[in-house]
Amino acid sequence: MRLRAMAKINLGLDVQRKREDGYHDVRMIMQTIQMYDVLEMEKSSVPGIVLTTNFPYLPTDSKNLVWKAAELLMQEFGITEGLTIDLQKFIPVAAGMAGGSADAAAAMVGVNRLFDLKLSEKELMDRAVRIGADVPYCVMRGTALAEGIGELLTPLAPLPLCWILIGKPDVSVSTKTAYENLRLGEIKTHPLIDEQISALDRGDLYALTKRMENVFEPGIEKQYPIVREIREFMEAHGAVKAMMSGSGPTVFGIFDTEAKGQAAAEALRESHLAKVVFLTVPYNRREKGLMSL
Description:
The chain is 33% helix and 27% strand. It is an alpha+beta fold. Strands 1, 2, 3, 4, 5 and 6 form a six-stranded mixed sheet that branches. A four-stranded antiparallel sheet has the order 8-9-7-10, covered by helices on one side. The radius of gyration is 19 Å and the shape is globular.
């Protein structure tokens, strides 16, 4: 079985408070994009999980979320057969695009299908939160409001057709670093998430992008000025709006025509500001079957 593990961007990201358990309450609009890793999964007669990947620095044991996700279901359902997984990564690592969570979600979907566990999407999502806060969303995909620590999900109207330019600089940012750079008490304005939801309901791309905001962005741009440079470069080259995704450092720009997006992508490549440059489109949850290849 071959599965697509799709990346995400955040169209709006607000952190509301730190909880007593150490986590933070967030309010975010999540959007799946058609940039993906590929998992090849196969049953094996040899018990256990064997994981390989094209990134030599990634762990291939229980430290990898793919391994953890597969093991979670195999242990729960007493699966004694073995499993081999080959992970081909294209989504940048530590980029604010939920690549690891997407891989874990695809692994859970794959185990569910390969071993005919007959778990519903909701049943998979209920288990996925044990792996990570973004994993339930990566099982569901599409356009969604994420609340709580990110696990409380409400499907939203799809993002109108647009072209999304991804630009990741040659730096990596952990979620821990992003929170260390965030001063909750100093946030003067919070993203207008409800107004973004209304814009989605109306199919108004311009009203939506006008309100795009990420509370992590100022702190990360202060530490890594290259993030601001890429954002400003995209807007100078035709993006309706550009913003950092998640905890960064990846920047994405929204373009209202493919021609503008392609021209900006070429200019960004020539600028050498970004290590990864990729032009893509949104994934609509109504498109079924795209997790499989």
